[in-house]
Specification:
mainly alpha; Double Stranded RNA Binding Domain; 3 domains; three-stranded antiparallel beta sheet; 62% helix; binds zinc ion; B box-type domain-containing protein; zinc ion binding; Znf_B-box
């Protein structure tokens, strides 16, 4: 990655340190305000497009690394080797002697920003963004519906519990009522029995009194005929 964005290369060559304001990709160097003006009117460079340093720094690292490879041989890339899938400068070409498919890189990169491939790439990215948005919405909807389902089941469990409670209460009431009825019935039976026993006791007592009085006051004959 280029490390000299901040320093104007032209001034640096003259041993002066000035901060650069713009970046020229053609020259692959930063330029201070003064050198920028010279660069803009000089015949050699007046067709170069420059970009402000702040904007240039925002480019992805990968793009900045591409700019740096220019510096390997201090030459511009002029050809592209399809066999090795790499751009070559005049000096690189020596190592591609056997390669037959060397193309003029300017032909290759001409209008690349307006090419179909670039457009399709942009469209693909748009589609991916759309897909991610859709997935995001779907998953959020799933979360909500999951929450709703959980709440519904929770309510059902509570309702079932209430129903069971009501049923058990009814069962208990019924059993207690039945128990009370049985008790009342048995109680009255026992009371009837007690009354009849009392009556019998009373009868026997009277009989005993009679016998005692007979024993005391009646004659043997009277007693015999009794
Ligand atoms: Zn300068
Ligand atoms: Zn330039
Ligand atoms: Zn080279
Ligand atoms: Zn090659």
């Amino acid at each position: 990655m280029a490390t000299n964005w901040n320093i104007c290369s032209v001034c640096d060559n003259l041993q002066i340190t000035k901060y650069s304001e713009v970046w020229c990709s053609e020259c692959d160097e930063g330029l201070c305000g003064e050198c920028k003006d010279h660069h803009a009117v000089s015949n050699a460079s007046n067709s170069h497009e420059t970009v402000s340093i702040t904007e240039y720094r925002k480019l992805p690292t990968k793009v900045l690394e591409i700019a740096q490879t220019y510096k390997l041989h201090n030459e511009k890339f002029e050809l592209f080797c399809r066999k090795h899938d790499s751009p070559c400068c005049k000096k690189c070409v020596e190592s591609h002697n056997d390669c037959k498919s060397l193309t003029d890189i300017n032909e290759l990169i001409k209008n690349v920003k307006t090419s179909n491939a670039f457009y399709e790439f942009e469209q693909t990215l748009l589609e991916v963004v759309e897909n991610i948005k859709r997935l995001n919405t779907n998953q959020k909807e799933n979360l909500t519906s999951l929450e709703n389902k959980k709440r519904k089941i929770e309510a059902e469990i509570k309702q079932t519990r209430t129903n069971i409670n009501i049923h058990l209460d009814k069962l208990q009431d019924g059993l207690l009522k039945e128990l009370m009825t049985v008790e009342e019935k048995e109680k009255s039976k026992i009371q009837n029995l007690l009354t009849s026993l009392q009556n019998k006791e009373k009868g026997i007592n009277e009989l005993q009194e009679n016998i005692a009085s007979i024993k005391q006051h009646a004659s043997e004959l009277q007693t015999f005929w009794l």
